[in-house]
From TrEMBL, chains A, B:
<dbReference type="GO" id="GO:0005737">
    <property type="term" value="C:cytoplasm"/>
</dbReference>
<keyword id="KW-0436">Ligase</keyword>
<dbReference type="InterPro" id="IPR041715">
    <property type="entry name" value="HisRS-like_core"/>
</dbReference>
<feature type="binding site">
    <location>
        <position position="146"/>
    </location>
    <ligand>
        <name>L-histidine</name>
    </ligand>
</feature>
<dbReference type="GO" id="GO:0005524">
    <property type="term" value="F:ATP binding"/>
</dbReference>
<dbReference type="InterPro" id="IPR015807">
    <property type="entry name" value="His-tRNA-ligase"/>
</dbReference>
<keyword id="KW-0067">ATP-binding</keyword>
<protein>
    <recommendedName>
        <fullName>Histidine--tRNA ligase</fullName>
        <ecNumber>6.1.1.21</ecNumber>
    </recommendedName>
</protein>
<dbReference type="InterPro" id="IPR033656">
    <property type="entry name" value="HisRS_anticodon"/>
</dbReference>
<dbReference type="InterPro" id="IPR006195">
    <property type="entry name" value="aa-tRNA-synth_II"/>
</dbReference>
<dbReference type="GO" id="GO:0006427">
    <property type="term" value="P:histidyl-tRNA aminoacylation"/>
</dbReference>
<dbReference type="InterPro" id="IPR004516">
    <property type="entry name" value="HisRS/HisZ"/>
</dbReference>
<feature type="domain" description="Aminoacyl-transfer RNA synthetases class-II family profile">
    <location>
        <begin position="1"/>
        <end position="392"/>
    </location>
</feature>
<feature type="binding site">
    <location>
        <begin position="309"/>
        <end position="310"/>
    </location>
    <ligand>
        <name>L-histidine</name>
    </ligand>
</feature>
<feature type="binding site">
    <location>
        <position position="132"/>
    </location>
    <ligand>
        <name>L-histidine</name>
    </ligand>
</feature>
<keyword id="KW-0030">Aminoacyl-tRNA synthetase</keyword>
<dbReference type="Pfam" id="PF03129">
    <property type="entry name" value="HGTP_anticodon"/>
</dbReference>
């Protein structure tokens, strides 16, 4: 056996108990919300056929897929000629499987494979890790969880309204109070391009406008000109950067500008309908104001997000009082399963970036104490006699549902206390010769340092509260 | 984009909503029990350094590890000479990472990497998938979950007693009533070998005895003779196959046979101490009888399980009224982290085979109804008018914590009912013109077919019970 100093692959992480418990708290809030809205869990294998993944994420994406070497004699199907053609050619010869790159393609694959058993509309959520051979950096990992919810098989804009509701509910439940759910529509972007005389060039407009936060109005103007957008068009475009006032004001202004374009009016009418649904649902996203005085749901005509993929409404969520990019996003797509030969299945989906949500909750100190609890009480063991008295109590505590431990061997009190400290165990029971004689146990509150005497029964009742 | 008919790699599975919900029920029971005993969750990355895994599972195991191809130009470090040496040599040149093969080696790797931060005894559980390039067959998959709990850094036999308690509690909570927790000790096996005059050959004895269930006493005798075990030794051995009576009887008989051997008496004294702990914990595993009249915990001197790895107590669990191999097992090891250069860390652990537990619960119809619930009520949508009346109710239901859905578009009643059926939604609300006029809603119980009228508020209260 080797004795090397072990390490883990770069870009991957171990999650120790304290972190797992906090991550599970986030997953729990998200799952309960998804389920309340009728979404049910799906799990797909970590490995997919390489052919299922290839060609779905663009050339760059294909490079970032982790390929799994065929087992056994993987060179058996290769020749010197194959090898001479280099790695790109060889991949297909030595690898048939690959690690999941996202949850969307496996979902589409699942829908197509099970189309005859699935009852549409099909609402599923999926919380699983994905793997990307990206260069690791702060906040970017090679293994990370995605947290997706999608509904396919319906065009109803109620689904979009419910996505706003779910985002609002998850973030509110997590204790966030200052966030913006930005919404836009692919039709608005196409309508803008048409209205300013650059029909069909919304892709280029978006790439530039997407940088507004980073490079400012002048920077975007420069980039648009480099891309050959006419100066007159840019001038018509700029007022859209800071459409102000209420969402209804923005909708009115946009109607004046784009109402005559086919795509623009499709986008506007969809957004109006989403708003109507949210009003009927008495959505807090419409009525709750951020500290800035804005409602949580904000129409943003410059939101561009993933243009190549989406065809209808698009979403993006930002926490305003934390130093973090978007923590959630999504949109409607017309043809998710077309890649596997099943056209005409429209759907809409969104996802949470769990690593980012985690960092935001840490930054804002929003993890509740209850998300950190493991063992509630440690029984200290001084010697065999104290162990004998502790064992029946231990069982009584567990029977009452109290997570409890007896330190498994006699050890110095200091060592046992530091064990409790490190596991953040809030209570410790001391059973020394004095306690055995009196029949009263000492319960120590590890946070306050207070000690209190209890009979065994009262102690169990107190901790089981 | 390719239009091939998509598939998943052999030996892997998609888990649809109904199955995920049932699996999560099992995981939930296991997690809650682990946590009640002070075990906390750990998660490690799916990919480990290949060097961390290689050499830990024997030659056959090494073959079954899924290797991940280096990203980018993976051939760049190879030459024609490497290729000529074949796959076994090439693996190290083109792959540095591999998929987790079990949870034990990553746990040992974690302990060694974090030894300065960890407070010992360290109790962790880990529920994650592992991957093995085994030939798939019924009940054997290439991706499957393991469910481990281990405590390292203490020799206390309280840990063994608590493992018995956890197994008993998990299986009882899952509704199983006829199972056996078999326990033995590595020292007993070594003592037997010594006592029958074949000291040090317990490995060979065990391989043969392990087949007792399959090939019978005669078959084992034949195999032992082929292995060169003396006839006199075999004759001394055979009475052990069917040691009968109470566990204490068995301990007495074993003491007569092995009490003089060092290893045998170590094993016997450890087992006696485990029993003493269980008595002090008033363990139901000692007092609850199976339908056969045996207690759940049974000393089995022929239990051999994973001899090369374990050094103390060993466990194995079988459900007696189901057609299934062992569903749980484990044992004590002296030197888990020695493979990474950190000697002297003793520990004990066990795991549940979740796929097998799942099949057993299905076979015995033990999944509770509550483990199948997703959405509780579907609001049927006849037309825009019924939708308008449904939307505020939908929100009211969700605010009351009731998982609920409005069918997202008007559709034939039959289609909506079949949607509810397939999702096993237990209640459906009908809001037609009659209901709108009367202000009373019709609630249909999908199982009984009964219908009842409610005011909206009463309906919410009824479903939120």
């Amino acid at each position: 056996m080797s004795k090397e100093k072990p390490s883990i692959p770069k870009g991957t992480r171990d999650f120790g108990p304290a972190v797992v418990v906090k991550r599970n708290y986030i997953f729990g809030v998200i799952k309960r919300t998804f389920e309340k809205y009728g979404y049910l869990p799906l799990e797909t294998p970590a490995m997919e056929q390489l052919s299922v993944l290839t060609g779905k994420y663009g050339d760059e994406g294909d490079q970032l897929i982790f390929k799994v070497l065929n087992s056994g004699d993987f060179l058996s199907k290769t020749s010197a000629a194959d090898i001479a053609q280099g790695s790109k050619h060889m991949v297909r010869k030595v690898s048939e499987k690959a690690l999941r790159y996202d949850l969307t393609v496996p979902f589409a694959r699942f829908v197509v494979m099970n189309r005859n058993e699935i009852s549409f509309p099909f609402k599923r959520y999926q919380i699983q890790p994905v793997w990307r051979a990206d260069r690791p950096q702060r906040g970017r990992y090679r293994e990370f969880y995605q947290c997706d919810a999608d509904v396919v098989g319906t065009n109803s804009l109620l689904c979009e309204a419910e996505i706003v509701q779910m985002i609002d509910e998850v973030l509110s439940t997590l204790g966030l109070t200052d966030f913006s759910i930005k919404i836009n529509h692919r039709g608005i972007l196409a309508g803008i391009a048409e209205a300013i005389g650059e029909k069909g060039r919304e892709g280029e407009l978006c790439v530039a406008i997407d940088k507004l936060d980073k490079i400012g109005k002048e920077g975007v103007r420069k980039e648009l000109m480099e891309r050959g957008i006419a100066t007159a068009a840019i001038e018509k475009l700029e007022p859209l950067y800071d459409l102000s006032g209420s969402n209804q004001n923005k909708l009115t202004e946009l109607t004046n500008l784009l109402g005559q374009t086919t795509e623009g009016s499709r986008g506007l009418s969809d957004l109006q309908e989403v708003w109507k649904y949210l009003e009927q649902l008495q959505s807090k996203a419409l009525t709750t104001e951020n500290p800035s005085g804005q409602p949580r749901l904000q129409l943003d005509a410059t939101l561009a997000r993933g243009l190549s993929y989406y065809t209808g409404c698009i979403f993006e969520v930002k926490v305003n009082n934390a130093n973090m990019g978007s923590i959630s996003g999504g949109g409607r797509y017309d043809n998710l399963t077309g890649m596997f030969g099943l056209p005409g299945v429209s759907g809409v989906g969104f996802s949470f970036g769990v690593d980012r949500v985690y960092d935001v909750l840490e930054e804002l100190h929003l993890f509740p104490d209850s998300s950190q609890v493991g063992t509630k009480v440690l029984l200290v063991q001084f010697d065999k006699e104290s162990e004998q008295h502790a064992l029946p109590l231990l069982q009584q505590l567990r029977d009452a549902g109290v997570a409890s431990e007896l330190y498994p061997e006699p050890a110095k009190l200091k060592k046992q206390m530091s064990y409790a400290d490190q596991k953040r165990i809030p209570f410790v029971v001391l059973i020394g010769s004095e306690e055995i004689a009196s029949g009263k146990l000492k319960l120590r509150n590890m946070q306050s340092g207070e000690q209190q005497d209890f009979s065994p029964d009262d102690l169990v009742a107190y901790l089981a509260r």
